[in-house]
Design brief:
This protein is mainly α and 351 residues long. The protein has 11 helices and no strands. α5 packs antiparallel against α7. The longest helix has 54 residues. The chain is rod-shaped.
Length: 351
């Protein structure tokens, strides 16, 4: 395996280092995640790292039957490929966010699987292990162990980062021997193991939200045709009921409003006179139509109609002969209205 790498090593090493450098630059960049400049860097880095991963598979640099001690020092860094690719994938702003996040999770799962196979870590990530809502309320011991493991990983990661920074400066300023380089790359892989556990927790939470949003969107699309059908129902036009004097028909069909009249106005008045509900004189006064187009017909009792007619005739006679008493009352009422505004006497209801 070492010979295969030495013949093609410089090319693989160059591609990997270029992709790794882009990942570090993107991680430290102050550019907004969605900026075109940063997204171009992300795409370029992903392309280089995918190319490097393909070459590693072609060269068969890693085997499940090996241990970390058997891997060449210069090859240990290639264990980072899935983790670096996951990091850039999470920063990629694509249209299908669900597919990108799932792809990033697959990269990290593969990374942890390889690291466990080589003895870099003994832990194994369980999907959803960081979600306290999925743990039973009585499983307090498991939650406590999970919390302690998270704190321990965090402390170890901080220690690894401090040591890695010191070693990185030393390696850049002078050429270190194989043993120092091996320790540096091993610590770097361990540091990314802690990062992978943390990132997988966030990825699982985002995937849960994205799946829920996708289900709701699909549900709305499925129900949309039914909602449109309910919003625009097909109804047959209704026929109006005809109101008749047939008592039996009225009982069967009800009142039937709005109705179509079954007799004219003159026929109605003639009927009222025949039944004695209004005096014959009322036929000479045709009611005026209202604003709605119908007629206001008031039932008049014969005695009341006669009394009203008599009073009206007396008033007309008094006016014709200029009755002094009537004129005096009219003038007094006019003077009273001039001195008393309407509503002044309404003291109880106050206006």
């Amino acid at each position: 395996m070492a010979e295969k790498h030495e013949s093609d090593g410089p090319k693989l090493s160059e591609i990997f280092e270029r992709g790794w450098k882009i990942q570090r630059d993107v991680e430290k960049s102050d550019e907004p995640t969605g900026s075109p400049k940063l997204q171009d860097q992300v795409k370029a880095g992903m392309g280089l790292l995918e190319q490097a991963a393909h070459m590693v598979r072609e060269l068969q640099l890693f085997s499940e039957n090996e241990e970390l001690q058997e891997v060449a020092t210069c090859n240990i860094r290639y264990l980072l490929l899935p983790a670096l690719m996951s990091d850039l994938t999470m920063r990629h702003m694509g249209e299908d966010r669900l597919a990108l996040v799932q792809k990033a999770k697959d990269y990290l799962t593969e990374f942890l699987k390889v690291c466990k196979a080589y003895g870099v870590t003994s832990e194994e990530y369980q999907s959803g292990e960081s979600s306290s809502s999925k743990a039973g309320p009585t499983d307090m011991a498991a939650m406590s162990r999970q919390r302690e493991a998270t704190i321990a990983r965090f402390r170890q990661q901080k220690e690894k980062e401090q040591k890695l920074e010191a070693m990185r400066v030393a390696m850049e300023t002078r050429e270190e021997d194989d043993e120092v380089q091996r320790e540096y790359y091993t610590l770097l892989v361990q540091k990314w193991v802690y990062t992978a556990f943390r990132e997988l927790s966030s990825i699982d939470q985002e995937l849960e939200i994205l799946h829920m949003m996708a289900s709701r969107k699909q549900g709305k699309q499925d129900s949309q045709p039914q909602e449109q059908k309910k919003a625009q129902p097909h109804r047959k036009p209704l026929k109006p009921f005809i109101l008749t004097r047939d008592k039996l028909q009225a009982q069967v069909f009800g009142a039937g409003y709005p109705s179509i009249p079954t007799m004219s106005m003159d026929e109605y008045l003639q009927k009222e006179v025949q039944e004695g509900k209004i005096p014959p004189e009322a036929l000479n006064r045709v009611p005026e139509p209202t604003e709605r187009g119908d007629y206001n017909v008031r039932r008049v009792v014969p005695d009341e109609a006669a009394e009203a007619e008599r009073k009206q005739m007396e008033e007309e006679e008094k006016e014709e002969r200029d009755d002094e008493e009537q004129l005096r009352k009219q003038r007094e009422f006019d003077d009273f209205k001039d001195d008393h505004r309407r509503g002044w006497g309404n003291r109880q209801n106050m206006g």
